[in-house]
Amino acid sequence: MDKQILLPTDFSKNALNAVRYALDLYADQQCDFHFLNIYQVDDYSLDNDMMVPEPGERAFESAKARSEKQFEKLMEILKLHPKNSKHTYHTISTFSYLFEAVEDVIAKKDIDIIVMGTKGDTGSRTVIFGTNTINLMERITECPVLAIPVDVRFSPPKELVFPTDYKTPLKRKELSYLIEINKMHGTAIRILHIKEEAELKKAQQSNKELLERIFKETDHSFHTLEGLKVQAGIDAFIESRGSDMVAFLNKKHTFFNSIFSRPLVKELGYHSRIPILALNDYSK
Fold it and tell me: How many CB atoms lie within 10 A of CB 103?
């Protein structure tokens, strides 16, 4: 079955860069790429029930036409990308909220993964992760979200860092995308633990052994750092090794949230340089 990939776009430079990264990451896979643009209608707001435009109204049709015209330009730009017979493109223009639109496409197209830029055309240089990206990484539970910084150019990822505190048992399904990336590009999985106590507790040791079994057929290794706060430790590890990607499991109220709470996003240094893969907690 072809992989179904969703690419939200506002036609910004960052969004285009994420598209190119996705095309190269899945270059050898049969894929349907679904490009999604949420357009705005002048003088209308979704927050005002009395002012929601309807199809057929001049303002609505004009906004939709602008979105479709931008898609035509995007398709022309992508013709400059190496042609790939394994890839099929689909475009979707809609007037909606981003989260609701994404959820709708996920359900209708059975999306496997979302790939998007870290911020849109209105993002300032001082804000590395835009609100839209953070919201999707935190709220989407049906599929992983891969966020691509604007300055990242694709090269086959040699090393992916997976930080964990070993406090919760993980499932093979939750980590299937790490194994998939390994199979596609020979990417080594580096499992990183930031040590908080002298020894792992019994449950933590058991969860570590579970990870060993899950990654048994995958190039992987375990690493431990101590004397550093979590975000500083991840940053130092990635910086020292030149890692290509980092993955977090989005488990509610646990490790992912401590990293991706909005204040900590601004404190992390590495995320401006490498893609971040937000995985799902299928126990929710």
Answer: 18
> What is 159-280's CATH number?
3.40.50.620
More confident of the two residues 128 and 161:
161
Alpha carbon 204 to its chain centroid, in Å, reads: 27
Q: Are 88 and 33 in contact (CB under 8 A)?
A: yes
C-alpha to C-alpha distance for 282 and 140, rounded to whole angstroms: 11
Question: Using N-to-C axis directions, what is the helix angle for 131-139 and 98-109, rounded to 10°?
Answer: 50
SS3 153: coil
pLDDT at 122 over 80: no
Q: What stretch(es) of the chain map to CATH 3.40.50.620? A: 3-148, 159-280
- Amino acid present at 119: K
Is 3-148 a CATH 3.40.50.620 domain? Answer: yes
B/e letters for 170-196, b = 16+ CB within 10 Å, e = fewer, are: beeebbebbbbbbeebebbbbbbbbee
Helix axes 58-78, 13-25, angle to 10 degrees: 50
**Contacts for 245 with CB less than 8 Å, ≥ 6 apart:** 157, 159, 160, 161, 181, 187, 274, 275, 276, 277
Going by C-beta distance under 8 Å and a sequence separation of 6 or more, which residues neighbour residue 256? Answer: 248, 249, 250, 278
Can you give the pLDDT at residue 61? Answer: 87
Whole-model pTM: value is 0.88
State how far the alpha carbon of 106 is from the alpha carbons of 69, 101, 255, in Å: 24, 9, 25
Residue 82 has what DSSP assignment?
A: P
pLDDT for res 16:
95
